[in-house]
Design brief:
396 residues, six-stranded antiparallel β-sheet, 9 helices, 19 strands, alpha+beta, Penicillin V Acylase, Chain A
Length: 396
């Protein structure tokens, strides 16, 4: 069962038995190398009205409805959250508030999450680049509460940028099936109560076995609120037997091994998906020769949304800049500060900071993470994206 109230309120949702999970390797991205005891996010100034809301009869009933629905669909992810609560000394009630923050902000009339994150997708026609750059922007209280998690859970290995007290990942990550993603918050005027929380969908995306499976997990969930998913997938490596000599992309002679097949470039997949309340969605595959910029507002899906000044400014500024042609120009765009009021790279304007910039390169099969202005290309970490094998083999 999920115990929400202890120690703040003695109430139990009869849903599942608690179990500790998450013996994970944690690597620091920003200051604060480990999950701090007491998870300071629930001790920050924004937390008091949320805690007061969840202690009210109406607020607690609403939170309970979200918990029951999501625990029934994703029981294993609730076990992970119970592990966080037990390890940090924070009540499940507070952990739930963090993980349903966007849904409750609209449904309960509370202050909403910061309106930032910017993405540039590029699928080049001449050089074959398949790139995605992402600015991970958030409020100042998260400067010391973010880290990488590398995990082997549920038969899938994954790496994800994670915030203290939240499921992985509400930012960006990838798994051993060659599936990767970044996320942008969206702010519909109305939400479905109860509905599936975006944090649970993005955690589920780390379990995806393919591009198609990732799309299915995104688009079949009955979201409460909204989200933008930028989905990537590496091509599978073919098992190729070379009878003599060396084949392209392989080493050795006359042996069977995993190699990148000749049509690998054609099978690089990238899409940007907008989802609204109740699960309405629009998925746009970014085909070869195309690019796409996304911020924190609906651009294709006809969903009534809150006015978002920051997104309007960033969309306008991105349209003024020449379409990026490679990694350097994507990082330059994401580091732009020409609009002083609402820059793409945030240094505390309106309380927002760019915590990190991720650059996915599908051809190189890498995810590079930069801190500071991405124009300076101050590399913080570099990860190799796994290339999944394809069943069967061909001969040459």
């Amino acid at each position: 069962m999920v115990t929400l109230g202890s120690p703040r309120r003695g109430h139990v949702v009869d849903q599942m038995r608690p179990r500790l999970l998450l013996a994970l390797d944690v690597n620091a991205l920003t200051p604060g190398a480990a999950i701090p005891e007491g998870t300071p996010r629930t001790r920050s100034p924004w937390a008091k009205p949320w805690l007061d809301f969840s202690d009210s009869d109406a607020g607690f009933q609403m939170l309970e409805m979200f918990v029951v629905l999501n625990a029934a669909k994703y029981p294993e992810y609730f076990q992970e959250l119970e592990g966080m609560a037990a390890g940090s000394g924070v009540s499940m009630q507070e952990i739930m508030l963090l993980n349903f923050r966007q849904e409750l902000s609209t449904a309960g009339g509370l202050a909403r999450s910061p309106p930032d994150c910017s993405d540039q997708l590029l699928h080049g026609s001449t050089n074959g680049h398949a790139l995605l750059g992402h600015n991970e922007d958030n409020s100042g209280d998260l400067l010391n509460a973010s880290y990488f998690i590398q995990a082997d859970l549920g038969g899938r290995q994954w790496t994800a940028f994670t915030y203290a007290g939240e499921l992985s990942s509400t930012a960006f990550g990838f798994n051993d099936a060659g599936v990767a993603f970044t996320l942008n918050a969206l702010f519909p005027t109305n939400v479905t109560v109860p509905g599936i929380g975006r944090n649970f969908v993005s955690r589920d995306l780390l379990q995806a076995s393919s591009y198609e499976d990732g799309l299915r997990r995104i688009t079949t969930a009955r979201h409460s609120a909204g989200h933008n998913y930028n989905l990537l997938a590496l091509p599978a490596a073919s098992l190729v037997q070379y009878r003599s000599g060396s084949g392209p992309g392989c080493t050795g002679e006359g042996r069977m091994e995993l190699c990148s097949s000749a049509d690998a470039e054609a099978r690089l997949r990238m899409a940007t998906v907008e989802v609204g309340p109740g699960g309405v969605h629009d998925d746009l595959e970014v085909l070869k020769g195309h690019s796409y910029f996304h911020a924190n507002s609906y651009q294709r899906l006809g969903v009534e949304q809150m006015h978002e000044e920051s997104s309007l400014h960033r969309l306008k500024r991105a349209a003024e800049i020449a379409v990026p042609q490679g990694a350097d120009s994507i990082l330059k765009l994401l580091g732009d500060t020409e609009d002083a009021a609402y820059p793409l790279y945030c240094r505390g304007e309106n309380g927002i900071y760019t915590l990190a910039t991720a650059l996915f390169d599908l051809q190189a099969a890498t995810m590079n993470v930069y801190t500071g202005n991405p124009k300076a290309q101050r590399l913080q970490a570099s990860f190799k994206l796994p290339q999944p094998p394809r069943l069967g083999f061909t001969t040459s």
